[in-house]
Amino acid sequence: MKREAEIVVIGSGIMGSSIAYNLAKAGKEVVVLEQNEICSGTSSATAAWLWPSDKTPEHYGRLAWHSMEIYKNLEEELGADFEYTITGSLELIWTEKQIESAKKLIELEEKLGHEVKILTQDETIKMEPVINPNVLGAIYCEEDGNLNPFLLVNAYIQAAKRHGAEINTNTKVQDLIVKGNSIKEIVTNKGSIKPGLVICAAGMYSKELAKKIGVDIPIHPERGFCLVSERLPKMLNTTVCGARQTASGNIVFGFVKDTVDSIDRKMYSRGMQMAANDIMRDMPSLGDINIIRSYTGIRVIPDDKFPILGPSEIIDNFWLSVTHSAVVFNCALSEIIVQLVNGERDTDSIPYYAYKRFIK
Ligand SMILES: Cc1cc2nc3c(=O)[nH]c(=O)nc-3n(C[C@H](O)[C@H](O)[C@H](O)COP(=O)(O)OP(=O)(O)OC[C@H]3O[C@@H](n4cnc5c(N)ncnc54)[C@H](O)[C@@H]3O)c2cc1C
What we know:
Shape: globular
Mean pLDDT: 96
Radius of gyration: 21 Å
Bound molecules: flavin-adenine dinucleotide
Number of helices: 9
Oligomer: single chain
């Protein structure tokens, strides 16, 4: 491991790997420190939908669609297939109230230049025959899709390496030594490194790390549960809110939210039951398929829901990259990080995402 580096990125999930790649491509000297293997945190336990069409309000929706624009050429740019698939999305409608909020979403998306529509019951079943025939309808956007998060992270990491980044796995950041107002040394189980800039992309562990140096990150954890089916013939035509079928045929179910106060990723029967209940409500005809795997993941939810990006303000060389929905947003967020690092923009240009919005 290098003992000194211009930029040290902590974490190699979707955010850390995306940032490492983009900074290395921009000519920066980058070292990544990952406590486990690459893509072993929340990015390994995600549903991995590319679902920009439900991101509100307007600034957040724009950011999501900008990220999707970058995705269009990303497999080619990274030289790797990460099963990026635009399938169209269906969010099932069960109540009249959902129809009212869908109408507002349609207006917003129209303003952003994207089409979202409400499908009738018949149109929904025709598009996705496994859906419960009692559904009222669905919100549909043909531009949404999904990907394989392991392949995406691996693609970023390999491309970052080609641009000279050093990736250290099984290297846990244990301490951050601050002198004056900046981090002088990062202590890991494999020795220390002197950083120029430190970018904390440690997902759910970011709060604990930042606390060591007096930075309070206003985020809270939420647990999600996923179930994975056996390999099946093609059964889903779209990414349904709650299920996607992978390139190899497995269906990944799950989007249940459970607000929790710890960040452990234990699976328990109540969680599995909640995920199974959702399947039975939405796609009862899939009730007999075999489930071969289950997992939990911790979503990091910023208190105002928006990404927390860039300088921590309190420690000069400690920056943050903490967000949920990173599958959708990573391309746009890492582009912003590169622009901030290069001095091509400042945090006034990201009022909704800069940490300083929390400083009274
Ligand atoms: C069930 C579920 C479904 C989801 N579905 C979607 C979806 O459909 N679409 C979407 O866009 N988003 C979705 N998300 C959210 C998305 O998965 C996350 O936003 C994303 O994975 C976060 O990536 P990250 O890189 O910030 O964090 P992580 O993937 O958690 O990466 C952080 C990394 O930092 C490492 N690390 C932590 N502490 C240290 C340390 N001290 N030293 C060294 N390394 C350290 C960890 O080991 C980890 O690898 C979902 C999340 C869950 C849980």
